[in-house]
Amino acid sequence: MSGLLDSPLAVVSAGVPLFADAAQAQAVPVTRVDWRPPEPGTEQDLARVMGDPRREEANRTAVGRLLSAGAELVDVRPAAEALGLERGSFLHAGPPIDRERASGPLRGALIGAMLLEDLAEDPAQAEQELAAGGIGLDPCHHHRTVGPMAGVVSPSMWLFELRDPQHGGTAWCSLNEGLGKVLRYGAYGPEVVERLRWMNDVLGPLLRTAVRSHGPVDITSIAAQMLQMGDEGHNRNRAGTLMFLREVLPGLIDSGAPAADVAEVARFVAGNDHFFLNLAMPACKLATDAARDVTGSTLVVAMARNGTDFGIQVSGTGDEWFTAPANTPDGLFLGSYGPLDANPDIGDSAITETAGIGGFAMAAAPAIVRFVGGSVSDAIEATQLMYDITLAESTTYQIPVLEFRGTPTGIDVTRVVRTGLLPHINTGMAGRVAGTGQVGAGIVNPPAEIFPAALRALAAAVPV
Question: Counting Cβ atoms within 10 Å, is residue 129 exposed (0-12), middle (13-18) or buried (19+)?
């Protein structure tokens, strides 16, 4: 102890801030650690799972698959052709839900999809048909598909088709409509349906021609580059969108389509900063799907929301969903909208955070705070905290401001429960009332109770 006070004092504080505040008031530098005790009642489950002799090797396997996955855009096709989706059947974002519990944005998107598919003449008839229960409704994730926000996919909608050249998986996602009053935010007015019809008649077929002419487009490479250029892959995709357009533009020009159609497609993609999101999502889906079904693994392979429930899936528990009521994002609102107008969290786009980008890469995109709220230091801190609940650092996605450190990747159920830290997700906000559209954007966390629920299932599966 004799030399302890001969050097500058360094203080690390965890838990209640009273001590740290008192030390700082006396000009003592303090490093604060955001630590909380494990959720009450989880101790036995934690001990059982942490003691599982399969866990470390299982997580190495699952993480290795996640990090080694690639994503190439190989085609653009209608959902009826790509997924075998039949007339009257629809997919939605998030864990399973029935029509009676569907949120306003999901109901609104289903109304719009009914109009698009000519299953109703007007919104009133669409609501009647939906209430009668004559439609099929299934999660996108159950069909290797991801859908942003409401995530509704109907048979005539065109989908991006991505393939993982490393593990052979395939994933799909719809084409991005833009922001504001769009179907995925629950809007279904005439302008929404008209835009969707143009996407089916012009945008989808032209993109198919361009992609087939180009050959596989390396989406993983574009996503890695866009993080170097100020995007984070969820709510900021400006550089990614323009890099994708650069790849397919020659094929669009050489397609033989009317010049007016080519110009309109180029304008639509270039003017929609979120267009690449619908390519980043299936790329992340491929990576997390590659890590599925590893016995004993505690790696989260899906986070998804349907506007009512938030659900996760874990590699070591198969296709089981662990759900709880979704939280409402906290952030910035458009126009006169406010917190009372926002629906609880919705969409499959949290697959980006699940794979290590989006909210986990906010430090790469400090300008994102102008869209979702907060400060630049908040964005950097959000990324740094996520290293405490993940199993690895990405070998593909790197953050310049953190000396090109890999993004925190591979959410670990045990680390979330042990630290009390919850994944950060940056997201759009849909209006609570069907037909409203987008009302803002912000930050949200999953409900805390889903992680202890997943832990219980993992504990129950540990051999005696």
Answer: middle
pTM of the full predicted structure? 0.92
Residue numbers of the domain that contains 422: 43-66+287-460
Task: Give the pLDDT band (50/70/90) at residue 31.
Answer: low
Kindly state whether residues 29 and 81 are assigned to the same domain.
Answer: no
Who has greater pLDDT, 13 or 28? Answer: 28
Q: 324 and 214 in one domain? A: no
| Cβ atoms of residues 396 and 67 within 8 Å | yes
Q: What percent of the chain has pLDDT over 90?
A: 88
Q: Does 345 reside within a domain? A: yes
182: its two tokens: 């769009």
Chain centroid to Cα 242, Å, comes to 21
**Strand (E) or helix (H) holding 160:** strand 158-163
- Please give the helix or strand (H or E) that residue 278 lies within, else none: helix 277-290
pLDDT digits (tens, 9 = 90+) for 51-62: 999 999 999 999
Overall domain count for the chain: 3
Query: What is the 8-class DSSP label of residue 202?
Result: I
C-alpha distance across the termini of the chain, in Å: 47
Give the integer Cα–Cα distance in Å for 366 and 120.
45
* 104 pLDDT above the threshold of 60: yes
> Is there a single domain that holds both residue 133 and residue 273?
yes
Band of residue 27 on the pLDDT scale cut at 50, 70, 90: low
CATH of the domain at 157: 3.90.1710.10
**Amino acid letter for position 89:** S
What single string gives the DSSP state of each residue in 129-158? HHHHT-SEEEEGGGGTEE-STT--B-TTSE
CB-CB contact of 407 with 397 (8 Å): yes
Q: Stretch 4-14: mean pLDDT, rounded?
A: 61
